Amino acid sequence: MLTAEFTWKDKDEFLDAVYWLRQIISLIMGILWGYLLLQGFIGLFTFLLTNCFVVYLYTTSYQNVDDEEYGGMTEILKEGMMSSFATFLVSWIIVYSAKMENIDPTL
Amino acid sequence: MVLSDTLLIVGISTCLTWLLVYRTENYQRLKNEVEKQTKKLEKQKATISDTGKSAKKKIDRQEERLKNDSRDLNMTKMKSMFAISFVFMALLSVFNSIFDGRVVATLPFVPFSLLQNLSHRNLAGNDYTDCSFIFLYILCTMSIRQVLGSKDDMAISIDKETAQQIVNIGHRVNEKREEALKRLLDVVYNIEGAVHTNLQVNGV
């Protein structure tokens, strides 16, 4: 997954790599966003933009994959989107709540 | 405290799926069997250039076995998933009664009105950043169950792969058949020629 321009045995292997990359990024971003106490839809939009941008860069620049093989860039960007979004929300909410609990003892 | 309780319960409930479905002996055995047979079939497919009738039969048998195992794997998965959905429903109602009306987390955003029914379910007050148990539970299951699912959608992918392999093998066999016929005709033609020449030689 981390080797540049890796030769993938099949399509699913690359899509799995994208999926797990997304999960890792989402978890890290969720923790970071929570720790920084980011709030509102800015947090959501910045996550979506950053996540898609990282996957785009990973596909085009790092792995040099021909996106047409996978049904276009939108298909790659869609891969594991919902579950990574859920992972991000869970980690963001949990860290944010924990920090807020520390700040406000009435919570 | 409530947060850690929620985390613990969500963790237990998601681990339960894993323990009851993906770690069962039968499931693991079938999964390994299917993986092994797919690899075997791949190898046989790779050496198809030397095939005769017996090799083709062997591959057919192998395919049949692989199909049966894939079917069994799907059945095991289906049965377990059926049981799991019951467990999940029961757990959800139990946890819901424990955490009903309690704020389990603070949302860093205000959800849009459609989601507010879920995120603010049975909670007092108008602070929509308060999060109910059910909202967090749904998010966790969306995230963790799909992680497990992504690794174990193998049966479906194997089914697809098997179907594709069968098509490929069919094509190859047809190609080889034409080639074999050509070769056979050549041999027959050569033999005839040789016999004819021999006869001529003998005759002279």
Automatic annotation (TrEMBL), chain A:
Location of this chain's protein in the cell: Endoplasmic reticulum membrane
Keywords from the named record: Endoplasmic reticulum, Membrane, Transmembrane, Transmembrane helix
InterPro entries in the record: EMC6-like (IPR029008), RCAF1 (IPR010742)
Keyword Cytoplasm: no
Topological category with respect to the lipid bilayer: Multi-pass membrane protein
Location (main, coarse): endoplasmic reticulum
PANTHER family the record matches: GEL COMPLEX SUBUNIT OPTI, PROTEIN C20ORF24 RAB5-INTERACTING PROTEIN
Family membership: Belongs to the EMC6 family.
Protein name: C20orf24
Organism (species): Bugula neritina (Brown bryozoan)
Automatic annotation (TrEMBL), chain B:
Keywords: Calcium, Calcium channel, Calcium transport, Coiled coil, Endoplasmic reticulum, Ion channel, Ion transport, Membrane, Transmembrane, Transmembrane helix, Transport
An individual GO BP term: endoplasmic reticulum calcium ion homeostasis
Location of the protein in the cell: Endoplasmic reticulum membrane
InterPro entries: EMC3/TMCO1, TMCO1
Pfam families xrefs: EMC3_TMCO1
Classification via SMART domains: DUF106 (SM01415)
Keyword Transport: yes
Membrane topology: Multi-pass membrane protein
One GO cellular component term: endoplasmic reticulum membrane
Transmembrane domains' residue ranges: 6-22, 81-99
Any GO MF annotation of the entry: calcium channel activity
Coiled coil stretches, renumbered: 24-79
Family indicated by similarity: Belongs to the TMCO1 family.
Name recorded for this polypeptide: TMCO1
Source organism of this protein record: Bugula neritina (Brown bryozoan)
